[in-house]
Amino acid sequence: QPIEVLLLGTFHFDDQGLDAYKPRHHFDSLDAKRQVEVDAVVQALSEFDPDLICVERRLDAQATLDERYAQYIEGDGTVDSDEIAQVAFRLAHKMNHTKVHAIDASARALQPQVEPIAWARKNGHLGRLATPLQQVQESYLVDRDRFIDRADLSTILRYMNHPKVLATGHA
Question: Residue 94 to residues 7, 45, 69, 119: CA-CA distances in angstroms?
Fold first, then answer.
């Protein structure tokens, strides 16, 4: 039998500024209203009855992920606000999973040592470097960012994972 896979794309709940796009709006996942929304998303995902829950973390970070999940299960009082703790750990715990799996790999091995976007930004040439598609992407990210302040989490994730939105991103 083919294996069913449910892939949920999300944004960084607790953005650390590591991506090229810097959000203008903050998603406070620990806010009481947002916690109700996170619970609703986790409940909906649990109906898929996943055997494994995987997150975007490099394989060499599995030990750290294991430690964080163990702390989450033990409820040691620290509550992380990122999407891994709020969605993946919560779902894994609800499903009685003993582990959350890291499944990311470094994708930058073939990129130049000088990051072109960072160089262009630093030297005032970002507009010249951006292709029309990158300009569309920037517009999408700004709109998504504004959307975070206006919509509930389920709506945001449904929008981000809609086939037309994904097709635009893949283009």
Answer: 18, 10, 13, 45
